[in-house]
Amino acid sequence: MFGKKKKPILSVIVAFYNMEREAPRTLYTLSSTYQRGVSESDYEVIAVDCGSDTPLDEAMVRSFGKQFRLVRMPPNPSPAASINRAALSSRGELITICIDGARMLSPGILRLTLASFRAFENPVTATASMHLGPGIQRKTILEGYDSKVEDQLLESIDWRSNGYKLFRISVLAGSSNNGCFCHIHESNCLTVRRDTFRKLGGLDERFRSAGGGLVNLDYYKRAIQYCNDSILLLGECTFHQIHGGVVTNSTNLGVVLPFLEEYQDIRNEPFCSTEKQPLLFGSVTPEFSKILSESAEKFYEMYQSISTNE
User: Fold this and answer.
1) Strands (E), 51-111
2) How many helices (H) and strands (E) does the chain have?
3) Is residue 5 a part of any domain in this protein?
4) Which residues pair with 229 in a beta bridge?
5) Nearest to 128 by CA among 25, 236, 40, 201
6) What confidence score (pLDDT) does residue 57 get?
7) pTM assigned to the model
8) Which of 50, 103, 187, 296 minimizes the number of CB atoms within 10 Å of its CB?
9) Cα–Cα separations (whole angstroms), residue 186 to 51, 84, 121
10) Does the residue 54 lie in any domain?
């Protein structure tokens, strides 16, 4: 008699919309071939197609491992409802939300995420964010940075064998501009226990703006307020591929104003990110040393500024 299929510990839910180019890279960085220190039985990956014009190919998604599956959802400007529905069908005790499927992962994220939940009772774990290319993408696209340039940049390094090499061709994103020693405003790789996800109500589906508006920032803030510990995975990040994102690849900063108004309407207060200092959990590779140095400089500058104002 065959035994029951082993239940995964971790469910990773990744949302995609019109990311035919970016999705295969992101999904590869979630495979057990790429991720270090985990086996395919430890986790499942649910690729959520949020009504793409050209739907993701199911065979492509499944090609990365037997723990991968595709869920197709009807078109919706916000991915919140689609992600919540996928979470209901997931099986892991831990739920990771990657709201932007264009973001590739570094190779130690899943291993460290699992380790953090063994070390802490009820944490929320997050990763800082990077932008592929020579600078913040909303600026570099004005200087000729596009998908073709990015493709060439990625092919110039052997990132499939060593994903930490992605640090060599990227910079800190705006949401993580203060580095890893300070709080971050948003993360594209957030993990909580299933019971915590349920008590938080998942992503708030009242956020209906394109891309969800501030729904991911709101979810992260609420998770930090609810959980015992806020954990930032040291030495690990996500890497944003250019894809015409609503905010990350927009040259019009005014695009965020409706998002701020929506947040105000829902929460009855202006948005401000939490300044709770995260606990650092992880280790550092040689490729991460540049980010570590920049983070130390930014932390020192912030400390000096505070000391001067006191």
Assistant:
1) 68-73, 94-98, 103-105
2) 10, 10
3) no
4) 123
5) 236
6) 97
7) 0.94
8) 296
9) 24, 19, 22
10) yes
Separation of CA 102 from chain center:
9
Helices (H), 18-92: 23-28, 58-62, 80-89
Among 204, 178, 168, 122, smallest CA distance to 290 is for 168
As a whole number of angstroms, the distance between CA 101 and CA 15 comes to: 5
- Residue 48 belongs to a domain with what CATH number? 3.90.550.10
Given this model, what pLDDT does residue 2 score? 47
Q: How far apart are CA 196 and CA 202, in angstroms?
A: 9
| Alpha carbon distance 134, 160 (integer Å) | 20
Helix (H, G, I), strand (E, B) or coil at 24: helix
Question: Alpha-carbon distance 207 to 211, whole Å?
Answer: 9
Distances (CA, A) of 295 to 11, 278, 307: 30, 14, 18
Structural domain for 32, as ranges: 10-309
Q: How far apart are CA 191 and CA 204, in angstroms?
A: 16
Domain count, the chain: 1
Would 211 be classed as within a structural domain? yes
Q: Which residues contact 209 (CB under 8 A, 6 or more apart)?
A: 77, 78, 258, 259, 262
**The pLDDT value given to residue 1:** 40
72 contacts 38 by C-beta, under 8 angstroms: no
- The β-bridge partners of 47 are 14, 70
- Flag whether 3 is in a domain: no
Digit-coded pLDDT (tens) for 110-127? 999 999 999 999 999 999
pLDDT attached to residue 310: 57
**C-alpha–C-alpha distance, residues 228 and 180, integer Å:** 20
Question: In the prediction, which pLDDT does 273 show?
Answer: 87
Supply 265's token pair. 């309407």
Torsion of CA 233, 234, 236, 242, to 10 degrees: 90
Which residues of the chain, if any, have pLDDT below 50?
A: 1-2, 250-251
